[in-house]
Write a structure and sequence with these properties.
The chain has 576 residues and is an alpha/beta fold. Among the domains are: 44-154 and 198-261 and 269-294, Rossmann fold (3-Layer(aba) Sandwich); 162-193, no CATH class; 381-532, Glucose Oxidase, domain 1 (3-Layer(bba) Sandwich). The chain is built from 21 helices and 14 strands. The protein has helices spanning 14-17, 22-33, 38-41, 63-76, 99-115, 130-141, 167-177, 183-193, 205-215, 231-250, 254-257, 260-273, 278-289, 296-305, 320-326, 328-335, 352-356, 416-422, 459-463, 523-532, 543-551; strands at residues 46-51, 80-85, 120-125, 145-149, 156-158, 161-163, 381-385, 388-394, 405-413, 435-438, 470-473, 485-486, 507-511, 516-519. The protein has a six-stranded mixed beta sheet with strand order 12-11-10-9-13-14. A four-stranded parallel beta sheet has the order 2-1-3-4, sandwiched between helices. Helix 6 links the parallel strand 3 and strand 4. The longest helix has 20 residues, at 231-250.
């Protein structure tokens, strides 16, 4: 952190408001047009509050209030807050997939901050893709930034049962397809799952990425696990507003926080949480913005040495509200402190070690002890083989153990439309030992790499009691999902990866312990299939979709745009 604090004439916003020029006169007069006195904004850090609230993003329905609370904090600390609305990438409503718009939000965040007189920013997000999108943009912009997590919603309840959004929906929907839930049962569930503002309350992608933002040092200590509607959450928002002002004076930028060691911390925490499989793609993209390469092997190395201590759905039994009461992320971090780089700097100006010193755990079933882990190794495994030369991933803790070493015949779906048209066909040639394969679910093939990876189990098998099968695709799956689902197969089928050449009846073998994924087809046969293969037509000819398919990278590179990776700094805008 800088030893010398900035002076008012060194603020970035001074270039807009300070000089004795015609242009600066116009900037100052227009601010006064909005009712702001000159002394309110002159010589003070201007703090951009990037707010992803919208009426269609249920996870963020409280962020209007949080933005006002951040403003209170900024003003108390002597700054000038301005709210900057950004695209609200809501997991529930955004189609064809929110992942397609993560990079859009990242671009928008970066350019909002660059084009305006902003000295520092507070980023308001939480729903799955908003955390990485906001942080990717802030990393590329390079001004001081704090991330303010939206927090998880309250526990779900239905007929005396505690439910987790996403995870239990998938399970109960399987029962409905099997004929075990009536229409009345199913309809009555709707009001019990989502009971407040906030993100899914399981350790899905939203909770995982909020926790990893704190592990990276980009939130105030303890911020990631406060429930969205708890009064402490509003207080945290005020404190974030107060802290960002000092960060501007100290020039504490993301580059000083997001080191290689900080990313190692985030990977370690992801494994201890048994976090969402999506975290690998998002951390890889975020690290790429910081100029850090995160190969898949690094995730696997850390996974093998990190026990799963967080007993939350979908891998475990509890929910985010329980995690908060049990001691939250600080309690978990303290329990794995010997696996972390405790000297890493965080946004409050202290080290990670200082932030977790003295943190306690109040429920050893929610946050397990080291001698009683949920799993002795981390929550994600990276597989390689002739079916996935550049890697694929699986969440072993969310699969039935019998399937972690499995060989079976492929039942192939060429697209998601093909899958939904045939998966429940009573004549489908499928058994419990089959391997369901979905093609064209990747960044280009879908497009946007949707959460199609938890392929539905055929209805006739559900009726026979089957609840898990080996499933393989180049798609993602929701962090709230479960099952023996191999995801992110890379290269994807749409660019001619080996997945494109799998046919019905081919034998596929997976061994999680050995980290292998093998297609039992000869090289000569694969070569012949490759030569006969034709790539699918492009999905878009214009607009953002066209830009997306021209520039998105493969999953192992974070599915970011190739032109947004770290590189030469972009010059400050000219102000004449």
């Amino acid at each position: 952190m800088s030893q010398r604090r900035k002076q008012p004439d060194e603020l970035r916003s001074f270039r807009w408001f300070g000089p004795d020029t015609h242009r600066a006169f116009g900037h100052r007069s227009r601010m006064q047009e909005m009712g702001f006195a000159r002394e309110e904004f002159m010589g003070k850090p201007v703090i951009g509050i990037v707010n992803t609230w919208s009426d269609t993003n249920t996870c963020h329905s409280h962020l209007r209030d949080r933005a006002n609370e951040v403003k209170r904090g900024v003003m108390q600390a002597g700054g000038f807050p301005v709210e900057l609305p950004a695209m609200s990438v809501g997991e529930q409503m955004t189609k064809p997939t929110s992942m397609m718009y993560r990079n859009f939000l990242a671009m928008e965040t970066e350019e909002l901050l660059r084009s305006q007189p902003i000295d520092g920013c507070v980023l308001l997000g939480g729903c799955d893709k908003t955390t990485p999108g906001l942080l990717m943009g802030a990393i590329s912009m390079g001004i001081p930034a704090i991330y303010l997590p939206a927090g998880a919603m309250l526990r779900g309840h239905w007929r005396g049962k505690t439910l987790g959004s996403g995870t239990d929906v998938f399970k109960l929907h399987a029962e409905r397809r099997a004929g075990n839930l009536s229409d009345d049962d199913w309809n009555s569930l709707e009001s019990g799952f989502a009971r407040s503002a906030g993100t899914c309350m399981v350790m899905g992608t939203a909770s995982t990425m909020m926790s990893l933002a704190e592990s990276l040092g980009m939130t105030l200590p303890g911020a990631s696990t406060i429930p969205a509607v708890d009064a402490t959450h509003a207080q945290m928002a005020v404190r974030a507003g107060m802290r960002i002002v000092d960060m501007v004076w100290d020039d504490l930028t993301p580059a000083k926080i997001l080191t290689r060691e900080a990313f190692d911390n985030a990977i370690t925490v992801d494994m201890a949480l048994s976090g969402s499989t999506n975290a690998i793609i998002h951390l890889t993209a975020m690290a790429g913005r910081a100029g850090i390469d995160l190969p898949a092997e690094r995730f696997d190395e850390i996974s093998k040495r990190t026990p799963v201590l967080c007993n939350l759905k979908p891998a475990g039994t509890h929910l985010m509200e329980d995690f908060y009461y049990a001691g939250g992320l600080r309690g978990l971090l303290n329990r794995i402190g010997d696996l972390l780089n405790l000297d890493c700097l965080t946004v409050n100006g202290r080290t990670l070690g200082e932030n977790i010193a003295g943190a306690e755990v109040y429920d050893d079933d929610v946050i397990r002890t080291r001698d009683n882990p949920l799993s002795p190794t981390g929550g994600t495994a990276v597989l390689r083989g002739n079916l996935a030369p550049d890697g694929a991933i699986i969440k072993p803790t969310a699969a039935e153990p019998r399937l972690l070493k499995h060989r079976g015949k492929a039942v192939v779906f060429e697209s998601v439309d093909d899958m939904y048209a045939r998966v429940d066909d009573e004549n489908l040639d499928v058994t419990a030992d089959s391997v369901l394969v979905l093609k064209n679910g990747g960044p280009l093939g879908a497009p946007g790499m949707p959460e199609w990876g938890q392929l539905p189990i055929p209805k006739k098998l559900l009726r026979d009691g089957v609840r898990d099968m080996l499933r393989i695709s180049d798609a993602r799956m929701s962090g709230t999902s479960y099952g023996a689902c191999v995801l992110h197969v890379c290269p994807e089928s749409a660019v001619g990866g080996p997945l494109a050449f799998v046919r019905d009846g081919d034998e596929i073998e997976m061994d999680v312990e050995a980290r292998t994924l093998h297609l039992h087809v000869s090289e000569a046969e694969l070569k012949a299939r490759r030569e006969a293969w034709q790539p699918p037509p492009a999905h878009y000819s214009r607009g953002y979709g066209s830009l997306y398919i021209q520039h998105v990278t493969q999953a192992d590179k974070g599915a970011d745009f190739d032109f947004l990776h770290a590189g030469e700094p972009i010059p400050e805008p000219k102000i004449f």
